[in-house]
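Troubleshooting: if your tokenizer reports a length mismatch, compare your output against this known-good record of 167 residues.
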Amino acid sequence: MRTDLKDVAIERATGGDVEAIVKLAQENGPDRGGELSVRLTSEAVAARMQKLPNIVARRGCHLIGFLLTSERTATASPIVSAMLKTYPGSERAYVYGPVCVAAGERGRGIAAAMFAELRRLLPHREGILFIKTNNHPSLRAHRKMGMRPVGEFTHDGVDLAIFSYTG
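Known-good structure output:
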């Protein structure tokens, strides 16, 4: 893995990033061979930014990655509700994800750098996420970042692993 990120800025997302986040998410949706499980809308991304930090990675003016978060108590999608029913986490826990790095940028440590920034901004809070059990690169990456499996569930016929960490 190449980890030289001096040409990549990792920072808190702003309202000006909403459309680029949605575009990158669409480019990595299942209809295009990607692994993202949730369809993002501009409204949903903007709403997330009102509560918790969301992180972006960019090279110059190009957004090449994002890591979104939401309060555990926020109105959740059916898949997130199913995860939280299986593993609700601690009282102050939040939902981590989705996280997405542009296809040509993977393997450089960008997801880990965004995660490190999120942990800096949300210390001592538990994050909860799910990953498809057949998404081996994501499972490997999240384990390498120190996250631990805490449960499994199935949603719409897809097997998912639940991971947790404390910032």
